Amino acid sequence: MNELIKQIEYNNGKFPEAQLKEIINHREKYIPELIEILKNAKENYEEILEKHNYFAHIYATFLLAQFREKQSFMRIIDLVSMPKEIPDDIFGDFLTEDLHKILASVCGSDMDPIKRLVEDSNVNEYVRCAAIKSFIVLLGEGVISQGEVLDFYKSLFEGKLEREFSQVWNELIYDSCEVGPSELYEYIKKAYKDELVDVECISLEEVDGAIKIHDKEKFPKLKDEGYSFVMDTIEELGCWRCFIKESSDSKSVFMQGINKMKKNNKNKGKKKQVKATKKKQRNK
Questions:
Q1: Of 182, 189, 184, whose CA–CA distance to 132 is shortest?
Q2: Which of 23, 205, 254, 277 is deepest in the core (most CB within 10 A)?
Q3: pTM exceeding 0.70
Q4: CB 177 within 8 A of CB 197
């Protein structure tokens, strides 16, 4: 492993801005090693979970997304497709806060692997949510059209998503409000009637409100609302509160933080709580 990569392999509480800048400035040199980090994370995830301060897979994922490195796409897909709890154990809040931007950044225009994530009931539900949301990023970035997103979302409503109460349905309703709730309204109403959605996460009244304000002029604003590619790894990660000047804890603050949103929150499926977590974790 390159010496510079070794310097960012673990989180010691200090943000490695200089090292990340060097990697960014010489990206072609480091891309193969960053991809190898993802491969290693998939093959040796049990070892990674035992290394409480291990952070290389986080840096690698963000950097490759910033580089729009398509070679990393299937590596990331393979990593987040691991059985149920494993992606959550490896990435934690990353799944809910950043994965949608990562997937959109590296997929190019190949959306089929992302669609398969959404449609596979064996995939972690928050990975599936991120996959659904990645279509809004691609819309905001102008990669795909409103019609393409609507067609895919309609296919989910029409049977490609199992009709069982889950956070995945909450996400589909929420993102439908971003892309065109009036076009999907009959599907949305049926989902509420069939009790597939957590009304505390998003109510039908909130959907009605979204219809009133929604129009095509909203799409250029999606990027300003966070539906955008990863542009700057340093800006994205530098404000994470795991990076502090000193820490006497044997277990990293990062790992403490990412374990906050675990099974209890999953059972509740509160989208609003997830948003609040983002604000707290990303405090500067």
A1: 184
A2: 23
A3: yes
A4: no
Q: What pLDDT, in 10s, does the model give residues 123-169? A: 999 999 999 999 999 999 999 999 999 999 999 999 999 999 999 99
Residue 74 CA to residue 80 CA, distance in Å, equals 10
> Helices 17-25 & 56-66, crossing angle to 10 degrees?
40
